[in-house]
Structures
1.
Amino acid sequence: MAALLRRHAWPLAALALAVVFPVVARSFGQDFYVGFASRILIMALFASSLNLLVGVGGMVSLGHAAFYGAGAYVVGIASVEWPAGLGAQALAVWPLAMAASGALALAIGAISLRTRGVYFIMITLAFAQMIYYVFVSLKAYGGDDGLSLAKRSALPGLDLGSDAAFYYTVLAIFAAVLVALSRLGASRFGAALRGIKDNEARMESLGFPTYRFKLAAFTIGGALAGLSGALMANQNAFVSPNMMHWEQSGVALVMVILGGLGRLWGGFAGAALYLALEELLSGVTGHWQIVLGAILLLVVFFAPRGIAGLFPGKP
Amino acid sequence: MSWLLFLEQSLNGLQFGLMLFLLAAGLTLVFGIMDLINLAHGSLYMVGAYLAATLTRATGSFLLALPLSIAATAILGMLLEVAVLRHLYRRDHLSQVLATFALILIANETTRAIWGVQSLSLNVPQALSGSVQVLPGVAYPAYRLLIIGVGAAVAALLYVLVAHTRVGMLVRAGASNREMATAMGTNIGWLFTAVFGAGAALCALAGALLGPLLAVQPGMGENILILAFVVVVIGGIGSIRGALVGAVLVGLADTFGRAFIPLALKHVLSTSLADAAGPSLAAISIYLIMVVVLFWKPQGLFPARG
């Protein structure tokens, strides 16, 4: 037990901090920050799913927001179509969002992964933009204006309408996903993915079905992005095509690079820093994006491996 | 009506395509020669449009503002190359995406700080506000015709410059094999800076010319940037000829899609549904073209790298 504690000291400390956070925020009368922390965790989940593609598998996708948005729309559409029945149940809708986004990722990945490098960046971007325009034209579900949710999905035994309960649900999901991603990274599958990232031809000549491995990672990443989208739809009680716009994919990519490519905590670090900077700077000046841009430039030139690169540990 | 409409839409498509070409030409050279993914290319287009609008107001003459805004944007582009982008050539594509994304944030917000969030209006010059009879009984706006003329002239000029001059030879050498061109002694910093300045000038030209037709507003560069990237990829990275073919293809597809898809849909759908789905299907058709081209010719239509 003591050895287990020592080995996982930092993650456990982070988890303990995250668990007491809402209590502390409430005691200071800063309930607003509970919702803010939920947003950080959800974006961290989204960025982590992209990190699996980019950082572990070397697949630079500029269309990851398509899966995030698709997951969000599953929640939105389900709440409109079956408001009384299963459409309101988190246990039905959230897995459905993952399945839908995963299936979409499987289809898009099957075509996109035939290309490489810059062409892969562009083709994933193209597919995401196509899906973006499909939802812009879906007037039945709000089109350009988006779709408001009457209330959050229901979870048996919990009132997700309360920000604290929703925060703990998101925290539990993110922690579980992080453990799963850590296991995946340590597995044969993860090692093979890193091998493909380093040198695909070598892995292929060693007999690994590299295309199938990459497609599997792409699909898992898409499904996790769908889950994060479903959670964000619940957090904001709103979905819109902007969630799948290419700039959203760009922001996720920025978070991953900012946090640390291929590092387990990279997605979290990047999302937390990006959103915290946004929150902090927007309180100081209306033109906070200039400062944010300058900071990103500094990161590129002086911390090329992101925040996680400043800490020891294997990539 | 149908063939008149067809002719008008063809001219519109050609006009949009040629403006896309102005953006894509610089982008494809920077991409092909310096191996730089420059997301901030659209910001130079925005800066060009803003400068043209402001200078037109200050000087009272669009014709005077046009060369001034082009020169200013070219200088800004070269400064940007020397200060920031030059240091990104040897970095991976991800760092380039992050750094140029940061430049977009800075450019858009600076524009907002200087000019406000409202879009600026830039009017068509008085002398060109009328129409021209392109065929007996067929009138077409004079200003749009001028844009087509300027676009075609610039395309021809670029072709001569790239295909028949010494500088053009260096540019082509850089695009087809950067390492080899460098090894042969052509890696001269000024070539990169000059190519970037020229690209910025073309952006400003497109921004200034399109200013009276579109809204001049912060973020206007991003939507057209993505289309320019699509053009570059369809045509083949580093190929001017590919950029021209791709740009006209995308321009025509977008314009025809917007004009004719809603008409066609009205036979099967209600009017309101057709109007809603039409523009989206037109936008989708562009990306579909790119996917199809990449599927059959993974290096684009006119690969520059032999």
Note: Chain B is about 75% helix and 5% strand.
2.
Amino acid sequence: MFCKRLLLLLIALLLPQLATAVPLADKVVEHRLANGLRLLVVERHETPTVAAYITIGVGSVHETSETRGVAHFLEHLLFKGTTTLGTTDYTAERPLLDAIEQVGSELDRLRLEPDADPARIAALQAQLQELQDRHRPFVVKDVYSQLYSQNGAVGFNAFTSKDLTTYLVSLPANKLELWALLESARMQDAVLREFFTEREVIHEERRRTYETNPRGLLYETLLATAFAVHPYRNPIIGWHSDIANLSLAETRDFLRRYYAPVNTTIALVGAVPADAAIALVERYFGSIPAGEPVPPVAAVEPSQRGEKRVTANFDAEAQLAVAYHKPTLPSREDYVFDLIDQILGQGRTSRLYQRLVETEQLATDVAVYGAPGSRYPNLFVIEAVPRHPHTAAEVEAAILDELGRLQREEVSDMELAKARNRLLTDNLRALRSNSGLARLLTTYQTLAGDWRYLVSYEERISELTAADVQAVARTWFAPQNRTVVVVAREK
Amino acid sequence: MKRLVKRVALCKYVWLVAVAALLALAGCTPAQPKRPEQLTYPPLEFWIPEVTQSTLSNGVRLYLREDSELPLVQVTVMVGSGSLAAARELTGFDDLFATTLRTGGSGSVPAAVLEERLDLLAANLSCGMGPYATQLDLSVRRDDLREGLAILGELLRQPAFAADKLELARNQAQEALRRRNDDPESIADRLLMAALYPDHPLGDSPTEASLAAISRDQLVDFHRRHFVPGNLWLAVSGDVRQTDLLTLLEELFGDWPPADVPDTILPPLVPPSAGLLQAVAKEVPQTTIILGDLGLTKDDPDQYAARVLNFIFGGGGFNSRLMREVRSDRGLAYSVWSQFQVGRRFPGPVMAGTETKNASAVEALALVRAIMHELRTEPVSPEELQLARDSLVNSFIFGFTDPHAVVVQRMQLEFYDYLPDYLDRYRERIAAVTAADVQRVAQAYFRPERQQVIMVGLPDETAAPLESLELPVRRLRGDDLRR
């Protein structure tokens, strides 16, 4: 008894004064435009640079079965300019763009017809090629990238996730107006050029990400297996047949519908006075119509009624993933899963690392994470790389035994303290860079509906007990809620 | 340090004035500019951040940048000896040494206790060995700095290299060896390095035998000879005062007696005698292509022209020729890139790479080589040159946004003996690069007949065989790689 109390005292002393929440809450200046666009500004003057993040609360979950892949594809096309940027003469270019769309769409339609005339297809292909060649002289290639680079900006990029889409760049602080001009133009005036060529790029991206490495195959197979109904099951990039059949009309519709201020959060972090940032964003984005809010996803994943188990073949040594459905933020259980993630899989003293990698040496690596998004109920995933001569089955048995232990016994105070310290300290580390902070702000504003999720996080995490961990483990680590995927060389 | 504070304050002030001026201007002209040419920018006032440098009583060099925004401290320790100082036949020594140093505990604290402490403090501690140096990185909360440094000091001064941790590291390396042909990219990288640095440690990859030959005594011996104060460089950033840090470091390291640093005898490099295309058959729908040649060392005055050339060729993202021609115009690839790695003592590799569907593999490789040919035979356009130089000059400031990167960079520049004015004159040297410089460097390093090319996948040769690329071809299968 005495020992235990002493230990608790020691742990209490060790708990840092984690000033994550307080400085952040004080530093963020929030401004809402009349059209609904939300701006978050954090002033930091260490170097005269600014990180600029624009997050649109639309991702691949908002696609239909007809438009799978469109959110990501659109993100690519939004690098191609506007009616005034990226063209030598839009008025002259426009008829060619229309002709390309018409021929390309006809070609797409014919390709799906079982008895289409091959000669007709070949003729259309030649026509499309000819139109594309005629169009090329009108294109000022990759004008956004060119303008940003010329002005010293770095990290110009974008990413599409299941839940949201983000456009990011870091600029020398004196060039911030360039960002406002380019990004406000992109939101209201984008022209979707080079559509059919870019579709080929997306096919290559898909091959590279999911089809030439075993990990990509493992992850894609896991999602497509664990989810039956919810769009979290689909790869963000789409399947090949999705990509091949995306149309300009669908892509344009997705853009017009959702890329609007009401769905947008901007974060500017760096050497910019908050009032100047607000004035700039008001001036460039203030007149854009509010647009239509992205509707919530109606599909609900039904409770899983039994274990799912899949093997996928790839020319590689075996690796495996074990996953369980779980609730997402802001539920209390999601915070508990953050602790479980630490206790099981983060750090050399975590349970799975200790058991699988160090003690029994069944695996060389174990990774624990939540996926594939956070807006809707998601998965708790454990991946492992077996070590020869141990098999995926042996590794799986050891993982399941550790999950059972979490259900049978309460975790120790020391483990809880470690998990909390790690979560809070890593949050602090994420604030170090301007872009890291900008990313956290737009992401949590969009996913949790309020960036202050980050501020209250410490308190939420500190309230949780060993009993909470045990209860959550008992509820969710049930066999019928489990999906197991193994990728291995065909025997 | 006082002077630095003044400079930062001045810099901030200038910027605020500039923004105010911009806003005032904006107030007079309500019309929002439509085109970038209509924008005018206030000047950017920027000084390279200063780093405080000092030396401990026993010769350890210390670089510090105080930064109190967040209650965190980062520490990087560089020991000026790496895998090139290990015995030639012990390929894989770098990994086993670094991992066992990190995980093997110390003379006074067993590994398990040490890991428990680090995890409870939520500290990050890592160790890695490169060809020329060994580096340890520590990140701790401000209030844990003393304990974090004490642990780091234990590992630096008296690592235990526990035998069971060496075996664990060895077992993991053996498993990585079994998996080295799983991923096309890892096959391509490995074969390219072996082709560029034949029979040289920079081109070797570990084998079962080389891993098995590494003993604990060899780790201990390497540590004894190379981990001495005069061979130690420290970079620290974060929420700590210089006086406090110096006191702490003297306490932890002050009684570590100086000793002579052994010279590393570098094995001579015999460059590959001729170009070669190696095609590895692997059942994947896309072919990974990577090609390379030997390039520059850090003392080469051509490195500025090489940076500009690289930007124009494939390093400038969407502004580069590779991206425009291979991806944007033809849709042949998602990723296509180039890189000039500047070597420290040996020439670094000049590389380019892409992945494309098997059907277009030969076409894509021919295109990459054709773009290299153009850069050799024709001067780049004034617009391309200007964009590359502007981008490199104007983005220079982003080398200084992370305070820790600033200190580590300063430390490394001095460790590797860069000219003292390297940073100060970097921008003017880039700005002085001409089209003729770019072409000259392209002629020196883009030599089609000397290129080492690796393809992994099932390239379709219906339209044109690999031999059409005018390089000798060697075809390999998975089994050849397992031997």
Note: Residues 106 and 159 of chain B are 4 Å apart (CA to CA).
